[in-house]
Write a structure and sequence with these properties.
By secondary structure, the protein is mainly α. The chain is globular, with a radius of gyration of 19 Å. Helix content is 80%, strand content 0%. Helix 3 packs parallel to helix 7 and helix 3 runs antiparallel to helix 9. The C terminus is likely disordered. The chain is built from eleven helices and no strands.
Length: 235
């Protein structure tokens, strides 16, 4: 499933350029020194990856606890269904019940901190910008979090989010160097492709949970793992 996280991040990065792109465009990278610029951008991405890894670790722990109760299969299926539903439910309806108003203060604090860090040009400020950037609300990050929960362990959940972050690096780096390099027509096609990718990944989680005996995709031993985990918990 780590491969799906990488692909998901790569495709989702086109959305990231639209949502987080302005931050990448505003990064005070050094224009005259190539080496310093590379170090600054690497520091920025390292901060983002750390945030994603921490989120994956925390939500992977949730999945791990659910797995101990023998719910790994159902968890994978539920996560897949949620991914598909999020895409199929009308955007206006999602906006009405997404609960983002409750997080408004948190987001405001993160944006204020980002604004302060963008004024600095030290190497550690780029790391902090990336770290804070990872906490900004993003639908695709939420989808990746679903995947980390379905992974069933803290380590795999962290790796899932880490690989998702790795997938976003190529395009986000290009945006940092070239700015807004995609025209409106290309962006439109790419934005339409993202929901398809989410649905496909959601279906993969559903198939994985069904335990159809397909190697690496839907292993039948998933049931056995759940049974062993449940027995150990009982003892």
């Amino acid at each position: 499933m780590l491969l799906t996280a990488l692909i998901f991040g790569l495709l989702g990065s086109f959305h990231c350029v639209g949502m987080c792109g302005p931050i990448a465009f505003m990064l005070p990278v050094h224009r005259s020194s190539s080496l310093r610029r590379v170090l600054q951008i690497t520091s920025y991405h390292s901060g983002r990856l750390l945030t994603y890894g921490i989120l994956g670790l925390l939500f992977g722990l949730v999945g791990q606890r659910l797995q101990l109760f023998g719910l790994q299969q159902w968890l994978s299926i539920t996560v897949g269904v949620l991914m598909v539903l999020v895409i199929l439910i009308p955007t206006k309806l999602m906006a009405r019940y997404n609960g983002s108003r409750f997080a408004y203060r948190w987001v405001s604090k993160v944006k204020s901190a980002l604004g302060a860090e963008l004024k600095r040009k030290t190497l550690d400020s780029f790391f902090t910008i990336g770290f804070l950037n990872g906490f900004l609300p993003c639908g695709l990050v939420y989808m990746a979090v679903f995947g980390s929960i379905a992974s069933g362990s803290a380590l795999e959940g962290s790796l899932y989010m880490f690989f998702f972050g790795l997938g976003t690096i190529p395009l986000m780096t290009t945006a940092t160097y070239l700015g807004n390099f995609l025209n409106a027509r290309i962006k439109n096609y790419l934005v339409r492709a993202i929901p398809v990718a989410v649905v496909v990944i959601g279906m993969l989680f559903i198939v994985r949970g069904l335990g159809l005996g397909i190697p690496y995709v839907s292993p039948s031993n998933l049931v056995a793992v759940e049974q062993v985990s449940s027995e150990q918990e009982c003892h």
